[in-house]
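Team,

Forwarding the record for the chain on the shared tracking sheet. I've put the sequence and predicted structure together so nobody has to dig through attachments.
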Amino acid sequence: MVIKKLTLRNFRNYEEETFAFSEGLNVLTGKNAQGKTNCAEAVFYLCTGTPLRIRSERQLIRRGAPSAYLLGEADTRFGAVTLEAEIYENKRELRVNGSKVARVVDFVGNMNSVFFSPGELRLVQDGPDERRRFLNLSISQTSRAYCSALQRFQKILDQRNNLLKGKDVPLIMETLPVWDEQFSLYAARIVYFRREFLRRLSPLAADAHAYLTDGGEALTLAQEGEYPDDEGGIREKLLHELRRAYERDVRLGFTTVGPHRDDIKICIDGADARGYASQGQARTAALALKLAEVEIFKELSQEAPVLILDDVMSELDLARRKKLVGRVQGVQCILTCTHLERVLYGRESNRMKIREGKLIP
């Protein structure tokens, strides 16, 4: 898959600009706070339907403008695809090949991307929310079934939590089993998809990590929590755990059991990376996960995603920079940096300079 053109109108600091990308390495250069990351974020948004660094989409709209507009044109193994997003203060409109889509599940996955920046250290060092977000964004791009289950699960979880915040305890206890039937159905599907994804991802991440460290350290991934092998068994286990947690859930006012509480354990040489990894080790582990994610997309989608590397080279030593550039051969890459000489090492690239939200010839 290759994104050919990106048009932005009133998005972040861009008034109006169009980017033409090549199939190989595309390098966006410029000083800090000029709009390089904003361009990268726009590509990510068109792939995932999700903002990169914020929760409120209104922050994507250029100050003083009524709305923001994004247009991406890509070539995929199924043919050309056009994705559009128009973002307003309190709503958005998504279109695929000119047709409006009402569900995000019909938008996500038409174009795939893997995003890595220095902020991805959160994936290794922070709490489980970051790792669940990584799984959700990645799996949703390759599986509409997962994306749909995730949306339904979140709605049911919100409704169950609202029930638990009530004051009428007898009514709550009477109503919970009704919600649990639907909750466990979609929760089991999510757990099953995540486990299968990690089963594929783990050896690929270990291989990428060994490449980046010259075999000096071993990376392992594991899903925390024990579940049966089949989806039906997972559902039965979740139902049992939900019932056991009724009193605790009512006391706390939220649901304490389910995939919204699960985590991935990331270990380096057998030690939990969250507690023991240095900044450099965490950065290398996170990068290995992202490179493995690229391989997952190749395997599941039969084509490579767009790899977005945002200001990564400044955080890597010379040896790892060269290894990274070598590893992304054959993948369309959008790379942002402040110093061009740090990233090319003789490789051909499509170079674009950005200043104050404008492309500079």
